[in-house]
Amino acid sequence: MRVLLATHLYPPRHTAGVEVFASATAAHVADAGHEVVVVTAEKDIARPDLSTREREHGGLRVIEVINNLFARSFEETWRRPVIDRVLAGILDDVRPDVVHVHHLLYLSAGLLDLCEARSIPVVMTIHDFWLGCARFGQLLHPDGARCVHVDPARCGTCLPSFKWRQTDLERRVARGISAVKSATGLDVSGAARRLAGGGSAGPSSAWTPPSAEEALRFEQGVARRLDDLVPTVRRCVDRVLLPARFMVPWFEELGLDGERLHVETTGVDWEGAARHPRVERAPGAPVRVLFLGSLVPHKAPHLLLEAWEQLPDPVRAGASLRILGPDQHQPGYVEGLRAAAEPLGVTVGGALGREEVRAEMARTDLLATPSQWTEIRPLVMLEAFAAGARVVATDLGGMAELVADGLPGSLFQEGDVGSLRSALEAELQTALEGAGSDTVERAPSPRFRPWSEVSQALIEHYDRAVRGDRAPIG
Question: I want to staple 423 with a disulfide (CB 3.0 to 4.6 A). Which of 376, 412, 413, 441 is the partner?
């Protein structure tokens, strides 16, 4: 079988949960004897917008569509005819038996129509709420509140503050950089980003509501988006896979056909964890606490620091905290995070490679996941479990579902510093009273499957999509 895997980003430059899931399963599907080709997007202002380039990753052919975010209209953030033409050429070149869509962000919903026109079955894994929420699918409003449902009127007050395209100045600069690269071979994009202060601004101090006119314009845009995306998925996608059970009613409410929704959980990297033997904590040694994730407000490392500061002195003295993760997205926020961490003796570091993540997990006793958005099924929590660490996590979505499924740890009330402090204190006290750190019994199970089993299930979904069989597996 020839499989075209479509996703918004792909390793090695991008290693968040969606990218790890896509690359891990793609490798196992290929190992099972199937041909896998990846199409993805990449921003590279040193190259012409909407050009393509090919590379190899993990032995797989990867086709990159250069998308420098030159969209002119809000509609072009989900459907761009110019990208559709590029994708049509890729489909005609690869001629897949099935297309597995992981994300359409930075690509185009037109890919689904192109597959329908060519009678190519589509399997889609939904990793977040982007289908309903245009703000990266996070269901977070800039006023600080979490959204439970999609309300176009509320979206209208949110999206004017969301940077969904490059400014005209950024567009002109990018085209100049591309021209220099084409003429001389010299890539000056890095220098341009440094002159611009890193290419990313810190969070604003306060959210300012947009004008009624602008809010209405985006409200109408969101209504058009929903009226386009949801029916397109209903019409063109044969099987929709959801990594967590709690997602099912949400997407049924959004308008997806329940008959096509199948819960197919993500896997655990048992093999990767086994390459890094657990580093035991000696009796009396500090309990090793870790935050691992992007250093951005919705991941809430600041909340963890606030709770850490409130711990009783003897408890905090018996533990150490490291905050690690990609730090390039919001420099202003990261600067404030480092300033708050320094007097507490907390380490704040940058991004880690995949093997570095596994090694870090092997010497962690407690993972803190204080996210303030509804995480689907955080791979970082599964990696901690495979390495023998416990977790403290927000009582939301897939975080709560993982703990309910037996992943060892504690939950705290969403956004509540006192609740997080209490959960941390209880976990740390228990660990300090014990002889060592390795108290987690970990092993593959139906709830915590290895990637190889997840990939075999995906192959079954592909087979059924090709046969037009909508029945669930198992």
Answer: 412
Check pLDDT > 80 for residue 435.
no
Whole-number Å distance between alpha carbons of 271 and 386? 9
- CATH number for the region 270-433 comes to 3.40.50.2000
Reported pTM = 0.88
423 class by beta-carbon count within 10 Å (0-12 exposed, 13-18 middle, 19+ buried) = buried
Burial bucket for residue 434 (CB in 10 Å: 0-12, 13-18, 19+) = middle
Fold category of 2-164+201-267+451-467 in CATH: Rossmann fold (3.40.50)
Q: Give the model confidence (pLDDT) of 232-262 as tens digits.
A: 999 999 999 999 999 999 999 999 999 999 9
Cα–Cα separations (whole angstroms), residue 95 to 26, 89, 98, 175, 239: 17, 10, 9, 33, 20
Q: Which residue has the higher pLDDT, 329 or 75?
A: 75
Residue span(s) of the chain under CATH 3.40.50.2000 come to: 2-164+201-267+451-467, 270-433
